[in-house]
Design brief:
alpha/beta, globular, 7-stranded parallel beta sheet, single chain, 23 strands, binds glutamine, 19 helices
Length: 536
């Protein structure tokens, strides 16, 4: 029988519940268990796909084409295991299946209610990852305990524990223990109160993970244990990490959180194997081959979460090359105002990530011109590839007003155009080209050198594509189509002949990069940046 761990959060949001859940999963995996992760998001959107990056941060795309919460990115990066659409449920998704079942007559004669119908649907979601080859499912509940919208989820967890029985279910509550500077003290009261809220709805957490800026003294842990009704040894400290989020599991392991989890679940405590992880952290913290500066020219820069997987993948590229990666986040509209040279002058590599809509496009194009002309390693992703194509058409192939039909109508040179099967699509939710698709890699290209394979699978999220009417003229001018869909129709990767490293892809390689195994394109991009820097 699959066992369940529920992770809730108290006091404030942004405590890093996703990171903690991912860290626990890693530790349990490294003790020989097969673990799956999922997140429940209490908002009403069916998925985050229609939300602005400023609202939600990055939308993480799974292999099976679900648009999901960015915490799934942490899950995959920590555990190295793919998630799927059953790793993320929202209130909207739960309600929409209950309501369509009601319309189909699935509840004929009955009044459909939050309890039991919504809570039953939530319990089905919780069990959707159960399988003979899954030992433990970890479910993270988004939001903060006490929010009105998370109540049905918590009620479902309470019921589930009741039904599954002690020993099969475990609650971890992540809470904040703030340090009040003026008083020179750490405060446990907010945690006591949030555990109190949980208790009023019938949930008593087994383990408390305390997020804090400073080490907790014994007296604080004792107080927490006493007032929150947990064992003293199950009050775990999770202090802010010094260098990297990848250190979080090590801190938890030191306090044997994983051991207690297994004991509580009645599972055997096997040895913990973390040597590769420790080695990885060591090369991350002590890079012995210098540093490079990479500029990310985006359009949602003010919110760090908007490009979460990109920043992580660049860090992974650094780990693989044993080099420190300094990130410079540059808003493309700033380049429109101040010029590329001024903002990009001390840069060893330029990355233009994905995005939607016309704002900031000209700034991205200016950054690409700068990278192309100065021979600075360039990596374009999704919208970044589309901009690279526009730039090349305008400034190398002489099509002055080349553009994408996403940004302007009645174009003379629509080098980027809506995909054929998108032309009749009007609904916005979940209708892009989503998920993993195969891609053939051309021999004797830098792309091939990176991948060392002639066929790869990569994840997509787009409506527009390269317009094949322009393939010949682009080729004649020095653009190589180094990755194509197996039928040869979709241009998935382009690169430039006469440039040290200029690669742009229609898909999102950042979703497949992990700290133990950097994505080959990110790895080689960072390597090219190092080479370029050395030559300077
Ligand atoms: N807006 C572009 C498209 O829909 C690019 C999407 C993206 O960068 N994810 O094709």
């Amino acid at each position: 029988m699959t066992k369940h761990i529920f992770v809730t959060g108290g006091v404030v949001s942004s405590l890093g519940k996703g990171l903690t859940a991912a860290s626990v999963a890693l530790l349990l995996e490294r003790r020989g268990y097969r673990v799956r992760l999922q997140k429940m998001d209490p908002y009403l959107n069916v998925d985050p796909g229609t939300m602005s990056p400023f609202q939600h941060g990055e939308v993480y795309v799974t292999v099976d084409g679900a648009e999901t919460d960015l915490d799934l990115g942490h899950y995959e990066r920590f555990t190295g295991k793919d998630c799927g659409r059953n790793s993320n449920f929202t209130t909207g998704r739960i309600y929409s299946s209950v309501i369509s079942r009601e319309r189909e007559g699935g509840y004929l004669g009955k009044t459909v209610q939050v309890i039991p119908h919504i809570t039953d649907e939530i319990k089905n979601a919780i069990c959707s990852l159960d399988a003979p080859d899954v030992d433990i499912v970890i479910t993270e509940i988004g939001g903060t305990v006490g929010d009105i919208e998370s109540l049905p989820f918590l009620e479902a967890l309470r019921q589930y524990r009741q039904e599954a029985g002690v020993g099969n279910v475990l609650f971890i509550h992540i809470t904040l223990v703030p340090y009040i500077k003026a008083a020179g003290e750490m405060k446990t009261k907010p945690s006591q109160q949030s555990v109190g809220v949980l208790r009023t709805i019938g949930i008593i957490p087994d383990i408390l993970v305390c997020r804090c800026e400073r080490h907790m003294a014994d007296e604080h842990k004792e107080k927490m244990a006493l007032f929150c009704n947990v064992d003293r040894k199950l009050v775990i400290e999770e202090k802010d990490v010094d260098h990297s989020i990848y250190e979080v599991p090590l801190g938890l392991a030191e306090q044997e959180l994983d051991v207690y989890v297994l004991e509580k679940l009645g599972l055997h405590v096997n040895n913990l194997r973390m040597s590769d992880w420790r080695k990885m952290i060591n090369s991350l913290i002590h890079p012995d081959r210098g540093e490079v500066t990479i500029s990310v020219v985006g359009k949602y820069i003010s919110l760090r979460d908007s490009y979460k997987s990109i920043y992580e993948a660049l860090t992974h590229g650094g780990i693989a090359n044993r080099v420190k990666v300094n990130l410079k986040m540059i808003e493309s509209e700033e380049i429109e105002k101040k010029g590329a040279a001024r903002l990009l002058k001390n840069t060893d590599g330029i990355l233009v990530p994905g995005g939607f809509g016309g704002r900031g496009i000209e700034g991205k194009i200016k950054a690409i011109t700068y990278a192309r002309e100065k021979g600075i390693p360039f990596f374009g992703i999704c919208l970044g590839m589309q901009c690279a194509v526009m730039e090349f058409a305008r400034n190398v192939c002489g099509m002055k007003n080349a553009n994408s039909t996403e940004f302007a109508e009645r174009l003379e040179h629509p080098v980027i155009d809506l995909m054929e099967n998108q032309k009749d699509v009007t609904a916005k939710g979940g209708t892009m080209r989503l998920g993993s698709y195969p891609c053939k890699i051309k021999d004797k290209t830098k792309t091939r050198k990176a991948y060392k394979k002639n066929r790869v699978e990569e994840r997509h999220r787009h409506r527009y594509e390269f317009n094949n009417a322009y393939r010949d003229v682009m080729k004649e001018n020095g653009m190589i189509f180094s990755g194509l869909s197996p039928d040869g129709q979709l241009a998935e990767i382009v690169e430039l002949i006469s440039h040290p490293w200029f690669i742009a892809c229609q898909f999102h390689p950042e979703f497949q990069s992990t700290p133990l195994k950097a994505h080959p394109l990110f790895r080689d991009f960072i390597a090219a940046a190092m080479t370029g820097k050395r030559k300077k």
